[in-house]
Amino acid sequence: MSTPIYQLKRVDFIFKDEKDWKEILKNSINRPAHELINELISSELKGRGGAGFPTGLKWKLAAEVDDPIKYVICNADEGEPGTFKDREILSKVPLKVLTSMAVCGHVIGSKEGYIYLRGEYFFLQPELNKSIGEFKDYCNEINFDFTIKIFMGSGAYICGEETALFESMEGKRGEPRNKPPFPSTFGYLGKPTVINNVETLAHCYTIFEYGSKRFYDLGVQYSRGSKLFSVSGDTPKPGIYELELGMSLVDFVDEFGDGDTKAVQVGGASGFLVPRKGFRETTIGFQGKLTGISLPTGGSMMLFNSSRSMYNVLDNYLEFFREESCGQCTPCRVGCQQLLNGIKAVKRGEKNAQYLNKLMRLTETMQYTAKCGLGQSVANSFSAIVENFREEMIY
Amino acid sequence: MAKKIKITINEVALEIEPGTSILDAARQTGVIIPTLCYHKDLCVAGNCRVCVVEIVGQKRLSAACATPCEDGMDILTNSFKVRNSRKHIIELLLSEHNADCTRCYKNGNCELQKLASDYKIMTQDFIRLSRSKNYTIDHYSPSIIKDDSKCIRCQRCVRTCEEIQGVNALTVAYKGDRMKISTFFEKPMNDVICTNCGQCINHCPTGALVEKNYIEEVWEAIADKGCHVIVQTAPAVRIGLGEELGFKVGSRVTGKMVSALKRLGFDAVMDTDFSADLTIMEEGTELMMRLKRALEDHDPDVKLPMATSCSPGWIKYIEHMYPDYLGYLSTCKSPQQMFGALAKTYYAKAKNLNPAKIVSVSIMPCTAKKFESNRPEMHDSGFRDVDYVLTTRELAIMIKQAGIDFMRLEDMSFDSLMGESTGAGVIFGATGGVMEAALRTVYELVTGRPVPFENLNITPVRGMDGVKEASIKIESPIQEWAFLDGVELKCAVAHGLINAKKVMDSIISGESHYHFVEFMACPGGCLGGGGQPIPTNPEIRRKRAEAIYAEDEGMPLRKSHQNPEILKIYNDFLLKPMGEKSHQLLHTKYSPRKRF
């Protein structure tokens, strides 16, 4: 099968002004819940945090649970290395996010929403609180009962994992829970909870504003709509760009690379590293049955040129994971230490190059057995770097 | 009942109740999945990942303890992928662990060691992380040693301290590679709200938490010809000791235990059950006096309900958590400390021994007793009342070291003077036992008749419910206690400090009105104590309780006030319960402590 070549298409939905939010809120909450759910389902919007769970289905599952108390949580614990898009959304178009949270509350039957704000984003708080105040005033005006509060995180990366986030909000240690049960039945305080990424909620607003078709028409099969990308690294134009999903990595590099791009890290430290030889066959989007290699991302796109040592890149990732693992499960806590110490030992010549193969098998175990996405995803960049830049690991 | 669901485990089909975990389902069919962080007493954590299994069709493996079965699941517990992963995980744990097994107190009774042996982890391919880590050993507590280098971070201790005891002295600190089990501000264990109950030791799979042992000190005392070494054994030891020495759970080994102690070289082997009977005399009298002050004299200052004071874990807990309510505690010392005070006074006098040369050892199912014997106020004999406290486990170690074939020992009986006991003393070892023993005596002293329960078995206070309540109506008492006529004596029993907290809170809020409450720090009472054989679980504790009650039923005397040696000590030495001598030797006071 030949891979269709898509030109990069800039889109401008997310940061388009939010002046119609009152109207959109009023119109949306006057629509029946099932209609809104169907709107989201037919848009095929998938979670923009990176995992790609269908948003409509998420809302539907929570709506179906019979419980007088439910919660809507906006996950603004943007901690993945190389992403900075949620910060922009919350500072430029916060009312879009608030509106979608309220609509979600209407759909699932919740009266309380929280924004779990990354600890390092404390400076967003005053402005965001102003917007929340303005939003609350309007809700009161139209007699719509929904309250939004900010919950400040304290800086642990793992608290972006949804169940660790709930634990953190409950005043406990931010450690991921066992799943099942999933948040739609047992979330914050054990109540049915919808937890969405900031960007996902911003896209919901687009869908409520223009209808699902406008959104669905963007992108490719399995990966509909647009997405914000945080472009960084060796690029002449770093920044945040809204692009259609389904683009091929070669087009992306043509647009953003500096002519010397050696590899692209898609999806941050927990994402996938693509070496130059894989640019052509890789597209950015969610994995589907018919697509070739398609990589999901929370939005982080880091470009590395030939001046970069991939050993240092990996060393940096592993140090990050060793420190940011919550430490509860064995494969992640000890595995990350072994990987980091292992590549150092190979580099220093204390272990022979074959030891890298043992570490590769270890990452497989971590992928199979770690309790949450953190430990499971360490394998992604590790195996790509060690496989493709083996000589940089050893010499 | 919900409809059963169909699954297969290793290609064997079975039908199970919905909601059953894969681990339990596998056990039902005789498939054993190894575990480390899982414990029957505790909530599921799912963090060690040793129990991972393959669900056919899923790329990732699932933790068997934390995954409920779903209809149609096809589960493999020993596939190539599972075995490889499991082995990796054991190797990872070992790489972080101070695996110097021959120098470990838990050598031979370590769940990680057993796994390593089962999976024949013979090589050390991964880097030894344990060498570069700055692990600390906390040996400041008189009861518990916490060695971080042996810790596998399963958090069983943390869950124990939180869920069973509600104490939360142990908690998780830091994250990532620095993650460890620690205390408030990383203070040493003797400086936090730890009650020394030792439940964390009972639930620790490795040697990270062990009792501070005094085995060598006791051997030294025995070897010292100038010392007269006497030993007392707590009620719960005789039904636990056998487990360490080849007997099945719930075996009663009283006679063999006495024989073994004599062979070890103790100069006199006596019984804490004796001082348990004595406790009943003192505590029962104290209760009746408080009731008299409350109901007849209408004294507003009298503190009711009266709370028992036998469990040193509970005592330290109330001192920390409810320092304003210490007046509710009975002033009686625990049986161990009563015995200790008498050993260097009454016993020394009767045997014409120099109390300075007496070394008093106690065998306890408990680690908090080590702390208790160390309290500054426990010197009423003029010396340290109890010199060394050994746990049931430490006694078993001594018996093994001495080369005693425990199974083949003849039964022997305790030495006299403080060796005679009744069934009432024996049941101190089970939750509800102190209450039952007290009621047997108090009711009879007040009415002149035995308690109105068949065969003296006060069943409402028995069993493993966390909080038990009972009441006995007192009818036609003898003249002296006429004011108690028609009074309904209300009692409660709580075991496990989390349940003690419930009862205390309901007393303080005014929701519950009791006259007498028994509190025991450990689940099941002393038989589930922190010094008892490992493992522990609800089934084991139930069997030990059965053994205790069987021991009681087999005793010729079952009421404390009938114990001839008790009658003798009041006649010869103490004169009367709550008398002057008693106050001096058998009663104590408590000190408020801070919560941090």
List keywords for this structure.
heterodimer; A: 395 residues; alpha/beta; Rossmann fold; Ubiquitin-like (UB roll); de novo design (two linked rop proteins); 3 domains; 5-stranded mixed beta sheet; 4-stranded parallel beta sheet; disordered N terminus; B: 596 residues; Alpha-Beta Plaits; 18 strands; 35% helix
* Net shape of chain B: globular
**How large is the radius of gyration of chain A?**
21 Å
Q: Which stretches of chain B are poorly predicted, pLDDT < 50 over at least 5 residues?
A: none
Q: What is the gyration radius of chain B calculated from CA atoms?
A: 25 Å
Q: Approximately how much beta-strand content do the residues of chain A carry?
A: 15-25%
What does this structure look like?
The complex is a heterodimer of chains A (395) and B (596). Chain A is of the alpha/beta class and 395 residues long. Chain A has 15 helices and 13 strands. The longest helix of chain A is centred in the C-terminal third of the chain and has 19 residues, at 330-348. In chain A, the strands form four sheets. A five-stranded mixed sheet of chain A has the order 8-7-13-9-10. A four-stranded parallel sheet of chain A has the order 3-2-1-4, with helices on both faces. In chain A, strands 5-6 form a two-stranded antiparallel ribbon. Chain A has helices at 21-29, 33-43, 55-64, 85-92, 94-108, 125-141, 162-169, 198-210, 212-216, 249-256, 310-324, 330-348, 355-369, 373-388, 390-394; strands at residues 71-76, 112-117, 147-152, 193-197, 219-220, 223-224, 226-233, 239-244, 261-266, 272-275, 282-284, 293-295, 300-305. Chain A has three domains: 21-216, Rossmann fold, CATH 3.40.50.11540; 220-251 and 267-305, Ubiquitin-like (UB roll), CATH 3.10.20.600; 310-394, NADH-ubiquinone oxidoreductase 51kDa subunit, iron-sulphur binding domain (de novo design (two linked rop proteins), Up-down Bundle). With 596 residues, chain B is of the alpha/beta class. Among the domains of chain B are: 5-78, Roll (Ubiquitin-like (UB roll)), CATH 3.10.20.740; 92-211, Alpha-Beta Plaits, CATH 3.30.70.20; 215-274 and 339-408, Rossmann fold, CATH 3.40.50. Chain B has helices at 22-28, 80-96, 111-118, 129-132, 156-164, 199-203, 215-223, 241-244, 254-264, 272-296, 312-321, 335-351, 368-373, 392-401, 423-426, 433-447, 497-508, 538-553, 564-574, 580-585, and strands spanning 5-9, 12-16, 52-55, 62-63, 74-76, 137-138, 144-147, 171-173, 180-182, 209-211, 228-233, 268-271, 306-307, 358-364, 388-391, 467-473, 488-495, 516-520. In chain B, strands 2-1-5-3-4 form a five-stranded mixed sheet, sandwiched between helices. The longest helix of chain B has 25 residues, at 272-296. The radius of gyration of chain B is 25 Å and the shape is globular. The mean pLDDT of chain B is 96. The A-B interface holds A 156, 158, 173, 175, 178, 180, 321-331, 333-338, 341-342, 345, 351, 358, 361-362, 365, 367-371, 376 and B 44-50, 52, 59-61, 63, 66-68, 81, 84-85, 88-89, 92-93, 95-96, 125-127, 129, 152-153, 155, 172, 174-179.
